[in-house]
């Protein structure tokens, strides 16, 4: 182009050609810078939406705790620690980003404003913010790496193999090609590239924070019945003749017949069958005896153990002349429940005839010889009086104090479960139900309304029991999204229910 003798016109053409090539190169560089800027803004928006979604789960946990649900106290403590760890790491990254933008004189352009390309391509300011000399990081960067590392180490505790692999991949700070992670990511990089890398790190932190908190809430929903109702209950005769065989029934209340575990009683291990174990025993000696041991059962977090201790008395014989002791037992549970009819049986040792039963509150009606139906009234306890006459004509009367409890908390369900997975196309076709799992008394609920929360949007209330009402709101779901159905309203005859457990839908 420059060889040989050229005319002035040819020289001008050649010069213009060189200028054109330089402008093309400049435009390419600007397009790359503008692309980085767009990616950074997109990541910032995604991070903000994820943070708002996380707030919903934190608020749900705190609401349950403030409603008096003691099972959420430990969950709330864990969620608070996760939130603090994530916020410390996020704030440290924000501090470095602020230094970077301030020293590069960069602000996000408003609509109609021209992008400051000089600040976007500035590499000197990146080296100044990140490195003291050579590859030694500045104090602000050292603090950022330490706090991000603290966050990742905290969420790795107790995580399963799949979660560990994901976190180790997202937060891989290892050296590569004999260079540190910091040097590879930031040394001599344009300012906008460094800023985008930091924003991506923030996005990963908010995403994993949400994953861990959602797992806490989902595990609590799966384990909620265990916290509320799995209390050791031992049923055995109160009086046993010496040498007489008798059975002891041991279980977890009247709720879950799917539990897996075993009973430890006197050195023996008896597996649970349908959530309980029947142990054959023989009355030995006379006097007060104990049935004591422990029950171990499986939960999503591993095995748990509860201790039990029940007493019975071995007597030489039971004869009609005994002016003895009255006994009372609830046929279904050790307490009576408000809102349902409780079947009761009563007997007095030494009395072969009929006995009578009265209650300090509520109503008692007969259902046959020495059997009654009881409907509780107000208050937290009731005193039953069992009366009868011995063969000698002596009047026997004894009082028993029982607790009155409301029926257990109902659980929201879809397809019989409170945590379900399904394709996005199936979500709006689901019907929401409410039930008290494995409750011994017949209670049927009718769902009248609910709220739905999907990622990136505010919760919305709907009436009825079908998610078809929320079909428009549920549009746009994608694989990996989680939909929360909560504040479920339901009606049941004679039973008042509040704070029905929510349902979590994992979109496949």
TrEMBL record:
Segment forming the signal sequence: none
Domain Gliding motility-associated protein GldM C-terminal: 408-507
Residue intervals of the Gliding motility-associated protein GldM first immunoglobulin-like domain: 222-315
Gliding motility-associated protein GldM N-terminal domain segment(s): 31-218
Domain Gliding motility-associated protein GldM second immunoglobulin-like residue range list: 326-405
InterPro entries from the UniProt entry: GldM_Ig-like-1, GldM_Ig-like-2, Motility-assoc_prot_GldM_C, Motility-assoc_prot_GldM_N
Keywords, alphabetical: Membrane, Transmembrane, Transmembrane helix
Ranges annotated as spanning the membrane: 12-28
Protein known as: Gliding motility protein GldM
Species, as recorded: Apibacter muscae
